[in-house]
Amino acid sequence: MKNALTPTSTISPTRRQWLAQAMACTLAGPALAAYAAAPTPVEVWKDPHCGCCQDWVDHMQAHGFAVTIHATGNNAVRARLGLPQKLGSCHTALVGGYVVEGHVPASDVRALLKQKPQALGLAVPGMPVGSPGMDGAVYGNRRDPYDVLLVARDGSTRVFKSYPGHQKEST
Predict the structure, then answer these.
(1) pLDDT digits (tens, 9 = 90+) for 109-147
(2) Which of 111, 132, 116 is nearest to 44 (CA)?
(3) How far, in Å, are 27, 56, 111, 119, 148 from residue 158 at the CA level?
(4) SS3 88
(5) Is the pLDDT of residue 3 over 60?
(6) Torsion from C-alpha of 78, 79, 81, 86, nearest 10 degrees
């Protein structure tokens, strides 16, 4: 009679398979982590002298995007990409096949890329104070309300996310 604690031939292959899988996961883990941490590429067209555009680029880079800048202005590329002029802002970006116009927060760009809607992209028309690149002490820490719009391929829009804003408290 065999001892219950003595391994049998039916246990060994299962243990070996488990060890092989564990080893494969251990070896693949760093490679998968490096792949997951790879920055998302973004192309940006902006005026070479616009400070708020550069601040938005800095915001995107701080949130894991690898930005390539074309300091040639953005009117021609905005038209070429099919974004209506009425939705325009001071810079235009292309990321993952989507147009990103203006001071769109990085978190909304990430949400767009995750959701993958059938759309042209996102836009924050104008230059609302308090949006990324239009924020901070230079603006008195003011945050005006604004909407990030999801732009359909036909140019129609709907609100993707709203930011209520707040006024700086008086002292």
Answers:
(1) 999 999 999 999 999 999 999 999 999 899 999 999 999
(2) 132
(3) 45, 23, 15, 11, 9
(4) coil
(5) no
(6) 70
